[in-house]
Specification:
The protein has no helices and five strands. The chain has strands at residues 11-12, 19-20, 23-33, 42-52, 68-70.
Length: 71
């Protein structure tokens, strides 16, 4: 088993680059690969934060709407 953790704190928005630390929610990503030794399948589960972008608002939505960014 391998455990890894991303640094805590703000992350840049992948769209505009502005830092955000406001977490909207978390979700799981699962990746799988073929067996390394012919017996065990390799599976990687990653818990990902979905952050709220502080700057981007679509022009056709009310100003209270915010875009969600994944990091």
């Amino acid at each position: 088993m391998v455990r890894a953790r991303a640094p805590k704190g703000p992350s840049p928005c992948p769209v505009c680059g502005v830092l955000s630390g406001q977490v909207h929610d978390y979700y799981w990503r699962t990746m799988a690969d073929v067996p390394v030794d012919g017996r065990r399948r390799v599976v990687l589960r990653v818990r990902v934060r979905r952050l709220v972008c502080p700057t981007w608002v679509p022009p056709d939505l009310p100003t209270s709407a915010r875009k969600l960014c994944s990091s």
